[in-house]
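@channel sequence for tomorrow's demo:
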Amino acid sequence: MSHLSTHKDELLKRVQRIAGQVQAVQRSLETEADCDKILHLVAATRGALNGLLDELLEAHAREHVAHPDLSEDERQQGVEALVMAIRRYSK
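structure tokens (generated this afternoon):
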């Protein structure tokens, strides 16, 4: 996925923020924080992961499905990978 390398730093920063959110959930559980706080942290983490997934799906679609220089075989492979990712996400 060399096309992601142009946004590598931004993507890594997002992943680091998500890791921090997961650690906050862990700390909250360990310290027996209020249920509503933990629910809020988990929801925020899920939202951050969804945002990252949206960005990656869009990048994949643009580069491996819609790019005008793709062959029909390359385009079909891109579509299959995209469909598989969406199916996994929707479970």
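heads up for whoever presents: The mean pLDDT is 94.
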